[in-house]
Design goal:
Blueprint: H1 2-23, H2 38-41, H3 62-65, H4 69-81, H5 83-103, E1 109-120, H6 126-130, E2 134-147, H7 153-219, H8 225-259, H9 289-292, H10 294-315, E3 320-331, E4 343-352, H11 360-426, H12 432-466
Main location: membrane
Protein name: NodT family efflux transporter outer membrane factor (OMF) lipoprotein
Keywords: Lipoprotein, Membrane, Palmitate, Transmembrane, Transmembrane beta strand
Amino acid sequence: MKTVLNKRLFFRGGILVFTVFTLQSCIVSKDYERPDLKDETENLYRTDNLPTDSLSMADVSWKEVFTDPYLVQYIEEGLENNIDIRIALQQIIAGEAYMKQGNAGYLPTLNGGATVTHQELSKNSQFGSFFNGSLEQYEMVANLSWEADIWGKIRSNKRAFQASYLKSVAAHQAVKTKLIESIATTYYRLLALDAQLKITKQTVETRENSVATIQALKDAGQETQVAVDQNIAQYNNARAIQIDIEREIFRAENTLSILLAKQPQNYERGVLETQEITTDMKLGVPYLLLRNRPDVMAAEYNFIQSFELTNVALTNFYPSLTLSASGGFQSLEFQNWFNANSLFANLVGGLTQPIFNQRKVRTQHEVSKAQQEQALLNFKRTLLEAGKEVSEALYTYDAETEKFIYRRNEVEALRRAEANSEELLNNGYATYLDLLTVRQNELAAELNSIDTKLEQLLSVVNLYKALGGGWK
C-alpha cells in the first residue's frame, strides 16, 4: 500500500514539474527594441557640412586632447579624488547589488528554523488528561518556495535591474565627462586671467609714470590740471581693473580646489600664449551620440528600465504558479527529535489568478505605460539637447576663431595709434586727451583679445564634452 502511494506522489509531482516547464514558453513580455530616432538625429548638428565620419572627437582620449602637463596632472587628480566621482561610484556599487538581486530572481527562497514549544494544558480537558497536563514539541523545519517564470515576469524584472545598473554606470561616466570639462575650463580661465593681470599691471605702471610726468609738466606750466586729473583717473581705473582680476583669480583657484577635493590654495600653471588644442574636431554622425554621450546612454537605459517594468506590470494580469515545499524533524520527545521516524515533508503547488484587487493591477499597468512614455520623451529630449550643445559649441568655435583675427587687428591698430599720437603730441599736432583716449581703448582691446582667445579654447572643450568625450 505504501509503495502504491509513493508511486502516485511521484507521478503527480512529475506531472506538476512537466507542467511548469511547459508553461515557461508562454512568455507574454516583449523584447526591447530601440525606437526609431531618424527624425531626432537628422541634421541634428545644424551644419551645412553633413558629418559622415564613423569616428568622432569623443573617441580620442582626454590625454591626447589636453597636452598641458599641469592640466593633465590636475585632471588625473580630479578623476581620483573628486567627491562627485566618488558619490557616483557608490551609486554604481548600489546598482550592482540590485542587479545581483535581480539575477537571483530565478532561484528559490529557502528558510530554516528550529522551535521548542511547551504548553500547560488543563488537566480536565481531553488533551490535558492524555498528556498529563503538559505538552512539549520539538521542531526543526526548512521551507522552500519557487515561482515559475511562466510569463517572463522574473526575466523582465532582471532586465530592469540590469538597465538600472547600466544607468548608474552611464551616470558615473557623465560625471567624469563633466569633471574633465570643468577642470579644463577653470584652468584655461586662470591662464586668461593671468594674461589679463600681466597686461593690467604693465598698464598700471605706465599710467603711474604718466601721472608723475604730467604733474611735472603741469608744474612747469606746459600742461593743465585737467590733463593731470585725466591721468590720475586712468591710473585709478587700471588699478580697479587689476583688483577685479586678482579677485577672479582667487575665486577660480578656489573653484579648482573644490574640483580636486583639496583645500583652497595656489596652483602652478602654464601661460595662455602656448595653449593650443590640435585634435581634429571630427563630429561623427549624430547617431554616435547614442554610444558616446553618457547622459544620452543613461536616458536610454532609463527608458529600457521603464519598458521592462511595464512588462512586469503586464504579467500581473496572468496567473502565477508557485511551488512550495517544507520538511524537517518533528517530535514530542527531545531524545527522538532527530530520529528517522521524526522526519516529515510537504509539497504544495499553487496557481494564483488575480480576479478582483481594487483595480490595483490595472492601475499599476497604466501607470507603468505612462512612465515608459515619459522615459521615451526624456530620452528624445536628451538627444536633442545633446545635438544643440554640439551645434552651439561648433558655431562658437568658428565665430571666436574669426573674431580673434579682428581682435588682434584692433590691438595692433591701437598700438600704432598710440605711437603716432605720442609723436604728434611731441610735435604739437595732437592733444594729450587724444593720447589718453587711445591708451584707454588699447587696454580694453588687449583684455577683449584675451577673452576671445579663452572663448576659442573653451568652445573646443565644450565640443569635446558635447560629443561625449572624456570618459573613455
